[in-house]
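Q: My collaborator sent me two sequences in one message, no labels, and asked for predicted structures for both. Can we handle them in order? The first one she listed is below.
A: Yes, handling them in the order given. First sequence, followed by its structure tokens:
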Amino acid sequence: MLEEGVFQDKPPSQIYGCEFLLRLMTRLPTLMLTEPKSKMDVNGPLLQDLIVLLQKNRQACFKGKYREPKYSELRDWEKVLADKDKKEDASTAKTKMDSKP
């Protein structure tokens, strides 16, 4: 675990990045249900412009390479899938070893 204060001097954009912003944007329709239609009419085109900006500048905005998450960072359902993948990989490796002369 990182020590507290490691990110204290960084703005949220440097900590979370564009990927986090995109995940938030998928929830915006639900979050905006409480807003009056007039605000949606204003915010809609602005959000569309933001999406276009991110798309045009995707090389600069998004990292091209990510590290694999540690097992301890996975949610329970992801751990189930990871365990299943491990078993399948082990089974495939065993089959390959058995088929070698």
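Q: And the one she listed second?
A: Here it is, processed independently of the first:
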Amino acid sequence: MANDANSPGAPRMVDSRNNSKSSTDTNTPLLQDPYIYIGAGDSAAAGEQFVSLAVNTNQYGRTFQDRSYSFTIKPLPTTDADQNTQKDTPRVDAALMKQNLAAGGRIYNVNVRGKRGNIVQVYPSVEYDFVPNALALSTKDMIHFQWTGSDYNPRRGCNNAEGGPPDPNDFRTAANAQDNSRADRSNIVLTEHLAKNVPRDYLGFDPSDNITYTLMKQQAKNYIMQTAPCYNPATDSEDIKNDCYETIMRLAYLNQQMDGGALVLRAGDKCLTEAQLNAIQNQDVAQNHPLNCAKLNAKPYPYFDGGVMMLRKSGWFPFFSSRNNNFSNRQQNGIICVGNCPVDSYSGVLQDQNPVDTGAKVTRYTASKCTDTASGGTGANNNGATSCISPTPSTTSTILTTETQTTQEGDNDNFGDGNQRGCEIIKYNLNNVKTTEQMITLAIVLLFVGLFAAWLAYFLYNRYKLRLEEKTDHRGETKWQKSKPNEVEFT
């Protein structure tokens, strides 16, 4: 047999050179259910021992689903570079990388695994998750945040995932936003604790305050830097603080506002404001709109390079993806521990602690503003439940005494590219009938239903009445069943 080019002396792998037209062709090493001899037998009379393999030559060499990804490992940068928002490239501190590596530090690659869909739809893959999602590091270690994905997952609906951009994507309008989206997007937002599921306060001020942009930017930077792993106020300069803030915001918002390539594709259009998104009555259109930066839709491609983060401050730094983490089994979050990290000596697993359970004291931070988009007659989705909890819940709250109501959505598990449009929604009320055209259509449909019901009732009544009026001289008689038939003589 020929030798493999990469392993001299070893049998080469089977490839197209072994294609054969029949089972008698000696060019193929594959035979249908071949017999393999394993012994001389218990005796000469008993005969040799052999087994049969389960080899179906029609299936053996086929690739049913190719899930392979190719990737390239780049060499370590040798020169420093500033962040370039127009070219969408992160900051590079090659000198500090080299210094940390010489001191025993390592660069850890944090990326995203999984794909769009619920746990059944993505099998045997998984739903979105960070890999690795728990790191115990030192201040000499570094993290390279980067991930990729696909814009062409099968169209799914109902508990699929959130956000667009739509396919096809015109980058500007809601032309295709009502279709089920297919794209993968992820981001990283800091949170107070893995059990919180909401971002830390990134602002430090009330968005309704009447202050200048410069003051807002400065206050936001000062506030979030208190809990960022890439800045230590006790030792670091203002330049390091600015660099860290750039990295934190790049990971959270993916440079959507300044990405030069994205701006060209959307002809310079800005991200939609909260008021503009709230004005879109269709929830699918609002979530999938290519200018909905809150859902990361303005990023025109799935690959993202967040750059290498330097770890300068000890502590716990939990994070999650605001787009994909939906507080259930689709839990895309992670934890970075820098410094004295409680790692189990037997399993090597970073041990988390819930301050609510242990009684440990933690620093309190104000939760970021939550805007309710799921409830109310004028919201993007007036079928959903309230998505924000009041910051000052009533102390006199009691058990619900009235019936609650929800919307049931049908599942979507089509083959191939899946369903183009959103899931069917079964409604139990008519709150969505708002326009004159909808009211007229509903009235006509109900009119015809009523006419048909009245005609059917009239028809059944007349049939019943006619049967009662028929003659009943012989009704109930059974003698004829026992009598012999009359004999008729033919001549």
